[in-house]
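Q: Predict the assembly, please.
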Amino acid sequence: MEAYLFSFVVPYLAAAVGIGALLRLAGIEISKRPGKLFVAAVPLILVLLPVKQVPLARFVAGFNANFSITLSALLLYFLLRQIQGIRLFDRRALRTISMSGLVVGLCLYPCSMNLAPFDPYRFGWGSVFLLAPLFVLTIWLILRGNRAGFVLAAAVAAYGLKLLESDNLWDYLVDPFLVVWCLIASMAECFSRLRSLFPPRAAGIKV
Amino acid sequence: MNAWRKSMPNRVTISICLAVCLIYGLVFFRRPVIVGGFRPPLFAAAPGVLSGENDQPFFSEELLPTDPSFKTAHVASICELSDGALLAVWYAGPRELDRDVAVYRSVRAPGKSAWSEPQVLVDRIGASRELKRSVRKVGNPLIWSDGGNRVYLLYVSAIGGWASSSINLKTSEDGGKTWGPSVRLTLSPFCNLSELVRNQPLALEGGGFMVPIYHETIGKFPEILWLLPDSGGRGGFVVWKTRIDRSRGFLQPSVVRLDSHSAIAFLRNSRGKQLGLSTSSNAGLSWEAPGYAGLPNPNSGICAIRISGGRLLIVFNDESRPGARDNLRLAVSDLQGKKWTRIAGLEDAAYQTFAYPFIIQTHDGLYHVVYSYNGNRIKHLTLNEAWIEDRIRDAGQPGPWPNNRE
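A: Predicted assembly structure:
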């Protein structure tokens, strides 16, 4: 039951972020009360709309039922930033999430598709070989003040409470949609670093 | 001293770290945690069968009562219920992967010769309702019993072709009369795509099962899925998975128990022309690099079983032309699985298809074979040990094997 209810969260947050972005593109203010209510209420109606006799959120679950906790946290970050101006994560935490998500995705998916002799996905079924390093990493990130540690802790808590349909811890940490975001965010980060290394010269000004 | 104090985490950070410890403790309390490497349970001994030494050779065949209007009836499996009845399942419909395909069941009561009219066990709409999501297609049902009243059904549901399949589990506690809702098994990280099931599982000590499964997206490879009872009394299964092979295009393993910790797997070959073979000596945890079993395989399903006298019996398409399924034969080998003697031709008709055989042995010692007959019917054969011995005695004669059972 928890997994069923939780499967509405990511479609709801994704719809809210999408609608918020569209409204901002249209120049409509969403940080005031009517805008907030609109961004909160319309996605709720959307995800409950029946498609093929199931709510839209569950129709999406036909394609992927296990949206990760990390993706949920990111969408929540984007939504709160849009409507409240609150930043759940600083730049360092976002960089940690994007780089680690990319590395895990690039390792996990090819391996599971038979492009490597080893399949790390199996360690997600309660193996201490995944839980122990994850514990150390969570504590290390928190001690360093990196908020990505909270995301890890939330993912493990959700795994303990079985908030997703999957029994595999990897599915609480990453999903293909998150990895796509991680790829785009990492590329943007690399691009901005390259730009800072080679600052554009001011044209037409002689010193 | 002050610098040292400054470098120490503050109270808030320490509290958060303690909370993280509690969260991980929650996982250890609520979830099965595998400390050290995964150690699979040993294979359970095969259930005893009544001796049939003095039996006369027995062979019978019948078509299950499938709807003749269906153009597809495929992937049959069969199991014995605790009262001795037989329960067969298959999928049927207008054509493979059609939206109107459903999984059907039919029962043959003990001592009776007639099969019940097929009933829908699960269809697309029922699966959608039970799984609370949109399901476009269902297929590949696999049924087995725990020896008591509990019966399991694994079937796949897909959102597109077979490569988009996921495996679902249904359980009956009353010998297949009523069924619990379907439960989706998440077995792959990439949107849980492309896991399929086909051949019968092996029972394990402690009540679990080792199910041969396979993967189809990008690479085709055979896998082993463990369904182990949740020791925490929370119901359901603990899952673990391993691969039999990586990259040779083998799939649909048929696994036979050799002893409590050894097994042999025969593998459909989607690339070559020969049947694959692999062995495990650590209860399925790891498998030897596959070799060949010395039988042809036209990229078609096979099924093997252990018979008396330390031998293996296999039902297979005796062709190497890819896709050719116009015959079906029986062969016997020792437990090495490499030197086969063809003992009988079950089917042989040009331009027809006989595919996806499935074989079990029931407590009365009889062997039951079901397979797809010409694509739109399901045939059921019954044979006994004496018939097999009879055929072995006659074996060695040159093929082909038309109506070799006469």
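DSSP finds four helices and 25 strands in chain B. The longest helix of chain B spans residues 11-30.
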